[in-house]
Amino acid sequence: MGTFSRCYKFAPLLFSCAVNCLRPFNPRRSLGLTASRPKMANSVYTYVRDFESETTCLPNTWIVVRLDGQTFHKFADKHHFEKPNDARALGLAVAAARRVMRQHNDIVLAYGQSDEFSFVFRRSTTTFNRRAK
């Protein structure tokens, strides 16, 4: 086991619950000797699979995927973005869209408005087996 693995093996347990921040430091608890391990993400987010669909988009058609920001106003307030357009927020959104486009070669166009971005996939794409959801 490498040094990094040894040092950070139990790090997730320190941050598994906000209550840990309120309690006095207890080495036994921080090493996981008395605390239960947090659940794996698979068990917590399995409900997402219910949204998946076998319905596919028609072949040889453009697919447009729109991503809408969730509670963007809270994020904007926390980072003190200027209204209506903050250069940092716009730069962040554009950088995120560019990264998505680099990861998915079938995206030919991306455009954003407010807290949402839309991505247009090629007509010939087979990404995600052309599933609708």
TrEMBL record:
Listed name of the protein: Probable tRNA(His) guanylyltransferase
Coiled-coil ranges (or none): none
Gene Ontology biological-process entries: tRNA modification
Single Gene Ontology MF annotation: tRNA guanylyltransferase activity
InterPro entries: tRNAHis_GuaTrfase_cat, tRNAHis_GuaTrfase_Thg1, tRNAHis_GuaTrfase_Thg1_sf
All residue ranges annotated as the tRNAHis guanylyltransferase catalytic domain in the record: 45-132
Pfam families: Thg1
PANTHER family reported for this sequence: TRNA(HIS) GUANYLYLTRANSFERASE-RELATED (PTHR12729)
Chain segments annotated as transmembrane: none
Catalytic activity: a 5'-end ribonucleotide-tRNA(His) + GTP + ATP + H2O = a 5'-end phospho-guanosine-ribonucleotide-tRNA(His) + AMP + 2 diphosphate + H(+)
